[in-house]
Prior knowledge:
Layout: H1 2-29, E1 30-37, H2 40-47, E2 53-61, H3 70-73, E3 81-89, H4 95-104, E4 113-114, E5 117-118, E6 124-128, H5 131-146, E7 157-160, E8 165-166, H6 174-177, H7 182-197
Parallel strand pairs: 6-7
Antiparallel strand pairs: 1-3, 1-6, 2-3, 2-8, 4-5
Helix pairs in contact: 2-7, 4-5
Amino acid sequence: MxxxxxxxxSLKLKSTYLIFCLHYIIMAxxxxxxxxxxxxWCVEAVYQRVKGIESVKPGYAGGHVKNPxxxxxxxxxxxxxxxxxxNFNKNIITYEQILNVFWQSHDPTTLNRQGNDVGTxxxxxxxxxxxxxxxxxxxxxxxxxxxxxWKNPIVTEITMLNNYSNAEDYHDNYYDNNPNQPYxxxxxxxxxxxxxxxxxxD
Length: 202
């Protein structure tokens, strides 16, 4: 009886260890990118359609107000940018490929503006999480700037992530939950259709 109990206990310990190892492996494969390319509803919808993306969360970053509200962000006085925090499987998609989608999915040559969305909260920005991301972002920006894709110089800011907070829950999956909302219908949907046609997203 004692031997059976010890055997069962051993199995439980091995099972717990195995779960821990699997969790560690999964976490080791996941990396985070934080990008601002105008309205975060757009950025979220784009990256939700990219292979290798595990999750996308709208948020605010780079300002001087702690845990701002969407209403505060819209004033343009908090210094924050609307961003999408993207968790991706780096065994499927690289950070460089994440940025390739970024350059093609918004206009990085307009300062503090994307289409009719005007203000510092809509600025083009890459918030890097570590020095490796910084180096990749700088090289990627230089390459994009020297390409023929954009006529005007890229004004995208590259800076270390600071003062990030999640946006309110109602922003999550905004396009998918509100496909017939005017902004989704006339701004996001045409963008997604073009990117799908060009093979940038799935």
